[in-house]
């Protein structure tokens, strides 16, 4: 029943990236990401405690968040896999502030780990924002009722 309730909540889709100490990029698609604080500027992201990306974030203390646009469901799916393939293959990216930055994201955040909080089968990573940059004006990619979609502003709100 709880999963059904949560499926009816639209959530933004983002990709978390980090760079291992041996210069290997890793990343994961997440739908549990939110702003946390304005003073100081902080975000939170929730990762499965078995996640390789979480393991590297624990080691390095740094991560990037990439807010995806509505046309990036394929990218979200490729980073959602757990089978160890090179998720960055065929994706345009570069190193920025020591972390992998995906070129196509509609917004990007670089963060340093402030704390980690256990949350059942996930770990909530609290991050101090080191840089934040909108990179496009795409409609957002959201996850709702187990499918990807988008949200468009109401015509009266522009």
From TrEMBL:
Residues 6-150 form the Flavin reductase like domain. PANTHER family: FLAVIN REDUCTASE, FLAVIN-DEPENDENT MONOOXYGENASE, REDUCTASE SUBUNIT HSAB. Coiled coil: none annotated. Gene3D superfamilies: Electron Transport, Fmn-binding Protein, Chain A (2.30.110.10). Keywords: Oxidoreductase. The lineage of its organism: Bacteria, Bacillati, Actinomycetota, Actinomycetes, Kitasatosporales. This is Flavin reductase (DIM6/NTAB) family NADH-FMN oxidoreductase RutF. The keyword Oxidoreductase applies. Pfam families: Flavin_Reduct. SMART domains: Flavin_Reduct. InterPro entries: Flavin_Rdtase-like_dom (IPR002563), NADH-dep_flavin_reductase (IPR050268), Split_barrel_FMN-bd (IPR012349). It comes from the Bacteria. Belongs to the non-flavoprotein flavin reductase family. It comes from Streptomyces griseochromogenes.
């Amino acid at each position: 029943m709880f999963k059904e309730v949560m499926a009816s909540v639209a959530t933004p889709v983002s990709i978390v990236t980090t760079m291992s100490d041996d210069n290997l990029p890793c990343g994961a698609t997440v739908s549990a990401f939110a702003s946390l604080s304005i003073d100081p500027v902080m975000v939170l992201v929730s990762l499965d405690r078995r996640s390789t990306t979480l393991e590297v974030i624990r080691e390095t203390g740094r991560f990037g968040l990439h807010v995806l646009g509505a046309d990036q469901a394929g990218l979200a799916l490729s980073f959602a896999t757990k089978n160890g393939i090179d998720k960055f293959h065929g994706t345009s990216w570069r190193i920025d502030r020591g972390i992998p930055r995906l070129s196509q994201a509609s917004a990007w955040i670089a963060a340093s780990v402030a704390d980690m909080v256990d949350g059942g089968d996930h770990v909530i990573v609290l991050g101090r924002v080191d840089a934040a940059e909108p990179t496009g004006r795409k409609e957002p990619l959201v996850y709702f009722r187990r499918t990807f979609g988008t949200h468009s502003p109401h015509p009266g709100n522009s």
